[in-house]
């Protein structure tokens, strides 16, 4: 069901500073910058590699407000890995299959994610403490 690791989501206080760090230390390139009001983030996708099943990225996340998912995470745990995003062929179908196995779905239906993707989150409490995102890449 999981095709690849699409991205690792990293929570940070200052997006521009963290972009500079990933560019200068790892030589990564920003391929997209977006504000996603629904998710409460300002974010950037940095390309890591291309594989048979698609590309993989680091997603840097800065909260738009303290009272958001990433804002609360930063206050509680500080900067660090926030979630893992796995590529799937069909996010609606994956949600049905995973929900049927008793895993709590944060999103019953897909939402809008980076670069036109359809995304949905699974509750970290049912995935061994790992906030898990399913990503269906847009077919552009
Ligand atoms: N990873 C692992 N555990 C996490 C977590 C994370 N990223 N965020 C919160 N938790 C844990 C907390 O530690 C807490 O556990 P304890 O009760 O044992 O302390 C529990 O989950 C509830 O956390 P909370 O502080 O009450 O936080 P929220 O109200 O924000 O709820 C969650 C948590 C996962 C439901 C919420 O963050 C959410 O809906 N996330 C999905 C959306 C999202 O993260 N969007 C930003 C990224 C967008 C993108 O990738 O495009
Ligand atoms: Co993500």
TrEMBL record:
<dbReference type="GO" id="GO:0004493">
    <property type="term" value="F:methylmalonyl-CoA epimerase activity"/>
</dbReference>
<keyword id="KW-0413">Isomerase</keyword>
<dbReference type="InterPro" id="IPR037523">
    <property type="entry name" value="VOC_core"/>
</dbReference>
<keyword id="KW-0479">Metal-binding</keyword>
<feature type="domain" description="VOC">
    <location>
        <begin position="4"/>
        <end position="137"/>
    </location>
</feature>
<dbReference type="InterPro" id="IPR017515">
    <property type="entry name" value="MeMalonyl-CoA_epimerase"/>
</dbReference>
<dbReference type="InterPro" id="IPR029068">
    <property type="entry name" value="Glyas_Bleomycin-R_OHBP_Dase"/>
</dbReference>
<dbReference type="Pfam" id="PF13669">
    <property type="entry name" value="Glyoxalase_4"/>
</dbReference>
<protein>
    <submittedName>
        <fullName>Methylmalonyl-CoA epimerase</fullName>
        <ecNumber>5.1.99.1</ecNumber>
    </submittedName>
</protein>
<comment type="similarity">
    <text>Belongs to the methylmalonyl-CoA epimerase family.</text>
</comment>
<dbReference type="InterPro" id="IPR051785">
    <property type="entry name" value="MMCE/EMCE_epimerase"/>
</dbReference>
């Amino acid at each position: 069901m999981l095709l690849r690791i699409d991205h690792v989501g990293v929570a940070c206080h200052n997006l521009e500073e963290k972009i500079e760090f990933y560019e200068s230390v790892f030589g990564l390139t920003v391929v997209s910058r977006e504000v996603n009001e629904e998710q409460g983030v300002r974010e950037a996708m940095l390309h890591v590699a291309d594989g048979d099943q698609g590309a993989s990225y680091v997603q840097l996340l800065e909260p738009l407000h303290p009272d958001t998912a990433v804002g609360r995470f930063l206050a509680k745990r500080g900067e660090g890995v926030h979630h893992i995003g796995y590529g799937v062929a069909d996010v609606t179908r994956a949600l049905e299959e995973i929900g049927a196995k008793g895993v709590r779905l944060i999103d019953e239906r897909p939402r809008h994610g980076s670069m036109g993707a359809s995304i949905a989150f699974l509750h970290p409490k049912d995935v061994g403490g790992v906030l898990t995102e399913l990503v269906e890449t847009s077919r552009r």
